[in-house]
Structures are given as structure tokens and as C-alpha cells.
Design brief:
Elements (H helix, E strand, L loop, with lengths): L2 H10 L8 H12 L4 H24 L7 H16 L5 H23 L4 H21 L1 H4 L24 H23 L1 H11 L1 H6 L4 H27 L9 H14 L6 H19 L4 H15 L3 H24 L2
Helix pairs in contact: 3-8, 3-11, 3-12, 3-13, 4-5, 4-6, 4-11, 5-11, 8-9, 8-11, 9-11, 12-13, 12-15, 13-14
Length: 334
């Protein structure tokens, strides 16, 4: 059984107490680390972004290096709506999600016709196209100076975004919860199980009558929509959108986050994002010039030692420990 299939079975048994840990960590951060809440908001946004990529890479087996395109589309859509006066927080989220999903549907119908290297190149090409479009129309996007003047109404008309990031952190946490609930139900549904089947053996799934290409396109659009939510959330909490939201670097970063945490494990993004940000901060302080070298070295070690990421490694250790205890119990029987 694959790691993805095992993870699905584990989740299908119902809610586990361990699933409370990320939310307890968020609550503890809100209470005890108020000075780090803006950074925490960026970590939450990255978790949502990585969740969207996990649907493609971890569950369906679609490798892409252009996922930042949909993050950027969501960010610019939310920002432009706010500048135009449509500054409700949920209006911006919905606008970013719908626009990114629509773009994902159109681009996916082209990209998913290819495989391997061609698929990777087309994904990168989509990101480059949107990057140049954003740079070419400064009247709409702000161009190289970025989209400024973004303001968002108080949430529910009561909770206004503050300079300390408390409202933004709580708001981002609630959006993350909604995204997690949606993705969790999706991957546990018959549709989600069929995605794993497509990932493992496309030929067999086609033979039993599963519309493989249609389902790949649907999940591509859904993942793009969730990436758009992350982008819209970034625009609202930062009140600024720069061209970096459409960069290849961002596509690479979210891929690193997912590999570190563990692809196809739902909660891999929850581990990968804080590990990446913590490693970035520590390594940049220790070696400001060559910190990327050390980050790359860590990634190589994780990829070789923990094929399923940090979460996969923890799962393997847990299984081995359980097996050892079971063996000891069997040997202790009369």
C-alpha cells in the first residue's frame, strides 16, 4: 500500500486527537507570541498554498513548477477588487478563488494534455505569461511598483485589521480551517480516492471506466482555486501585491515546503511551512550569503533519508515503535 493510501485509511477512521496539535499551536502562538503574529500569518498562507499543491502532487501525481500563477491571480484579483471599492474580506477571497479556478480550468485543459518535461515547461510558461501581463499593465496592477492602496473592511463589520496582526492572524487561521475541512472531505470522498488510483495506475483507472482526464482537470481547477484563496489572503493581510507573487521562486518555495513536510499526507503542509520559515531565518542569520546552500543540503538529506518528508519519517518511526512493542508483548506471553 502506498503512503497516500495508508494516510487516507488513517484519516477515514475518523478525527484523531493528533489533528488538534496544529490548532493548539496556533492558539498558543496567538497568546504567547504576539510579536510573531505577522510571520505566523505568512506561515498560514503558505500552508494553504501548499495544501493546494498537495492535491496535485501528493494525491494526483501532477508535478508542476507553475503553481504560483494561480496564487498571483488570486492576489491581484483580490487587490484590484479592494482598490475598486469591493473591499469586503469575503468578497476578495471569493473573487480570488473563482478567478484562479477559472484560469486553472482553462490552463489545465492545455497543460494536462502533456506529460513529463513538457508539462513542467508549460506550467512555468503560464507563470511567466502572467508575470509579464502584470508587469505590462501598471495602470491595473501597479507594475514593478506593486499594487498599493489596498484596504479591507472590518471582518463582519466589527474586527478591523490592526498593525499588530492579531485580527489578520485569526482571520487567516479561520480561512485555513475552512480550506482544511474542504480538502479533507475531498480526499476522503470517492472522487479523492479515484485521484490516488489515477496517480498509481492511470491505465487501470481508464480500463475500469474512470474519466481520468476529466478528473485531473477538475482537481487542477480546485487546486488553483485554493491557491487563489491563499493569494487573496496574502493581498488582504499585507495590503500590497508585488510581482513576486507570480515568480518562479514562489513556485519552488511551495514545492520545497511540501517535500519537507510530506506530500500526500494532508498535514505535511502544516509541518513543512514552519520548518521552512524557521530554517530560512536561522540559516540566513548564521550565513547571510550562502544560506540557500545549506537549505538545499537539508532538502537533499530529507529527500534521501525521509522519502515521505518529516511527517512520513515520524509515521515510520511510530509504526516501528508499535511493531517493537507488539513483538515484546508476544514474547512475554506464557
Amino acid at each position: 500500500m502506498t503512503s497516500v493510501g495508508a494516510e487516507q485509511q488513517s484519516l477515514a477512521r475518523g478525527f484523531r486527537l493528533l489533528e488538534l496539535l496544529p490548532w493548539l499551536a496556533l492558539c498558543a502562538s496567538y497568546v504567547f507570541l504576539p510579536e510573531l503574529l505577522p510571520l505566523g500569518t505568512q506561515i498560514i498562507i503558505m500552508i494553504i498554498f501548499a495544501l493546494s499543491l498537495d492535491l496535485l502532487l501528493g494525491y494526483t501525481g501532477i508535478v508542476t513548477l507553475g503553481h504560483a500563477a494561480y496564487f498571483g491571480v488570486g492576489a491581484y484579483t483580490s487587490g484590484m477588487l479592494a482598490v475598486a471599492g469591493w473591499d469586503g474580506p469575503f468578497t476578495g477571497l471569493a473573487g480570488g478563488a473563482i478567478t484562479a479556478a477559472a484560469v486553472g480550468l482553462v490552463m489545465g485543459s492545455i497543460i494536462l494534455r502533456t506529460k513529463g518535461l513538457a508539462l513542467l515547461m508549460l506550467g512555468m510558461a503560464v507563470t511567466l505569461i502572467f508575470y509579464e501581463l502584470a508587469n505590462h499593465f501598471p495602470a491595473w496592477t501597479g507594475g514593478a511598483d506593486g499594487l498599493q492602496g489596498i484596504s479591507v473592511k472590518p471582518i463582519f463589520g466589527v474586527f478591523e485589521f490592526d498593525m499588530y496582526g492579531k485580527v489578520g492572524f485569526a482571520y487567516a487561521g479561520l480561512v485555513l480551517l475552512a480550506c482544511l475541512v474542504f480538502v479533507r472531505h475531498l480526499v476522503l470522498s470517492p472522487f479523492g480516492r479515484s485521484l490516488v488510483g489515477i496517480r498509481e495506475n492511470t491505465t487501470r483507472m481508464t480500463a475500469i471506466g474512470v474519466p481520468v482526464q476529466q478528473r485531473r482537470l477538475i482537481v487542477f481547477a480546485v487546486a488553483a482555486g485554493i491557491a487563489g484563496v491563499a493569494g487573496a489572503l496574502s493581498a488582504q493581510t499585507n495590503q500590497f501585491v508585488g510581482l513576486n507573487v507570480l515568480s518562479f521562486e514562489l513556485s519552488g518555495t511551495v514545492l520545497i515546503v511540501l517535500v519537507l513536510g510530506g506530500a500526500g499526507r494532508l498535514y505535511g503542509a502544516f509541518l513543512g511551512a514552519p520548518i521552512y520559515f524557521a530554517a530560512q531565518d536561522i540559516l540566513a542569520k548564521g550565513d547571510p550569503v550562502y544560506w540557500l546552500f545549506w537549505l538545499g543540503l537539508i532538502l537533499i538529506i530529507v529527500a534521501n533519508v525521509a522519502r515521505g518528508g518529516v511527517l512520513g519519517l515520524c509515521h515510520s518511526i511510530s509504526l516501528r515503535f508499535s511493531a517493537d512493542r507488539s513483538g515484546q508483548a508476544e514474547r512475554g506471553k506464557p
